[in-house]
Amino acid sequence: MAAQQTLDAILVVGPSGAIGKALCQALIARKAEFKRIAFFNDTSRPETDEKQSLFATFRNGGMEQVSGKYTDTAAFTGFDCVLMPLGNHAIKYQPTIIDSAITAGVRHFYTSEWGADLSVGSNWTQRYYRDKVLTREHLEKRGRDTDTPDLGWTYIQLGRLTEWSIIKHFGVDNANHVAEIYGTPEGKQSLLSTPDAIAYTLETLRHPFSTTDSGHRRTYRFHGSSPTWEEIFNELETITGHKYAVTYRDVETAVEKEARAKRLGDVDLELEASHQLIQGRGGTLLSGPFDNGLFPNIHPESVHSVFERIFKDSETRKFLGVS
C-alpha cells in the first residue's frame, strides 16, 4: 500500500485576488503546519502601490515571495503543491503554469475552481468555464504521461461564494435596490461563504492521500445552503431595510446576449451572459453527496449571517456597490 501523503510546501499563484488573498492569510495563520508557504509575484504584470503593500503584509506574516514569469521553471522548484486562485482573464495561463511546475518537480495542483460542478448540465460547454475545462483536460493529459503517474490535483466545488451572489455582475444593484435575474424566483443556487471555502481548502491540504487507486486525484464538494432567489431577496430586504424591484428574464435570451458580445469582442459581456445561462439553468446548484462531514470542526455560515456581515463592513460594501 502506498504511503499516505500531505501537502507541505505550498505556492499560491494569483495571491492578489479575493480568493488568493484569503488563502494567503489562512496559510499565514497556520504556517506552523507547513514546511514552506509562498506566493508568486508575476513580474510580467505591472507593479502597483496596493500590490506592493499587500505583498509586504504577506512577507511580514511569514510567507516567502517567489518572483518570475509563468514560464520560469526555477520559480516553482521546491514546492509539492501549487494553488491557482486566478481570475477569469488569467485562467487561460494555467496549462503553462502546470507545465513549468511539473518540470520543476511539483506533483499536485489546485486549479481555479472554487465554484460550480463543471460536469453539471451545459456547464462543460459554457464559455464562462472554457479555460477551466481546458485546464482539466491538460492536467488529465499530463497525468497519463508515463513519467508523471504521481501527478495529482484537487478540485474544490461549492456552487458559488455567497458574497459574490449579490453583486452587480450577476444582476443585483444594491445601490438602487433593483435586480435583473435570468431565471425564476424559485431558481436555486448553492452558496458557501468565502471564509468557509478557504477553511475547507486548508483542511484538504492537510488531508492525507495516496497515489493508490487515484487517491491523489480528488474532488471535494462543500455545501452551505441552496436558497432560491426569492429567499435571497427576502434576506436582502430584511438586512438593508429596502424593497428590491426584481425583474426575472427568460434565461434563454442570454444566448443572444452572449452571441452579440462575441460579435463585439466584449469578453467581459460574453462571460457575463454565459454565467447568466449557467445560473438560470441551475448550473450553480451543487448536488450531493457532500464532504462537509470530513471536517466537522467547520460550521458553514448562514446566508443571513454573511449578508449581515458584508453590509456592515466598509470594504465589502464597496464590493457590493454600496457607498
From TrEMBL:
The keyword Magnesium does not apply. Residues 9-144 form the NmrA-like domain. The keyword NADP applies. It comes from the Eukaryota. Keywords: NADP, Oxidoreductase. InterPro entries: NAD(P)-bd_dom_sf (IPR036291), NmrA-like (IPR008030), NmrA/Isoflavone_reductase-like (IPR051609). Pfam families: NmrA. GO terms for molecular function: oxidoreductase activity. This is NmrA-like domain-containing protein.
